[in-house]
Amino acid sequence: MSIEPRAQVAPERVLPGPVPVAPEAAAQQRVVQRICARVAPEGMRIGVGDLPPGGLQVWIETPVDIAAAPESWVLHHRMAREVALVGWHCEADADRLLVLGWSAACLHNRVRLLQSGLRRLAGFEHTAQRAVQLDGQHPDDEPPAQVAAAVCASIERRLRWPERLAELAGFERSSELPHLQLLLAQVAGLEAKVARACEEHLVMARVLARAVCEQYTRHRDLHRAQRDVLAESRRWVHASTMIRGSAGARPSTPGVGRPHMGLAERRIAASVINHGVPRVPRAATAPRADHFGPAEDAR
Q: What are residue 97's DSSP bridge partners?
């Protein structure tokens, strides 16, 4: 495992003094504060400060009620797991959580998580099914815009990536070590792709939720509206899969399909009638009867 070099860590928690904090250190503190606040129980205050001579230390400022919340070492280990998913090397005990330098192993793990997230986000079926259910609401209860907003909020919580990427907003990650800088650049690129994929899911949820509300206003049958909108959405939800299959059958590019298509490309592809029809190969020309083989030509 490769991490950025750090000096010897102080043996005990040292409260931060009035020393001015560098902008990059302040941004890191905000990110760690957001992550730890998400993990901690509601109402628990989390302290984050500099760790002489480098890094951050996290501690619980409010007393931990054993009956209502886990012990401090359990919370610190949960925080360490979530912070390490960003790419930092962490060490936790009952007294505090130490956030040290970038770790190559943790960054490789984040790359794998982002790649796995992209593969999961390539399918829109579950999002479509949840969107037409309107998050358990009825079109008569709220205006269509509010119903669509509630559906998008529910889908965003289910995706989980938007919240985790928002925690890193405004934080520019860098390293003096070249191989860690390359990993950070790879992570940033994958995060941008995941953010765009999540936005496509939210756009789809908003469109389908409003479509259900519009269909319901026509015939006042909610189940019929949900069924019709879901059936219509399946045409462009599965469009990229159909095109990928037909593209892979082409002789010029054997076994190579087209890249992942976004939501807009899927909707356009669904409007094409013959996108799933494979090309018919040309019939082979029958050999002429007067053709002679090489042995007979040599006579």
A: 58, 92
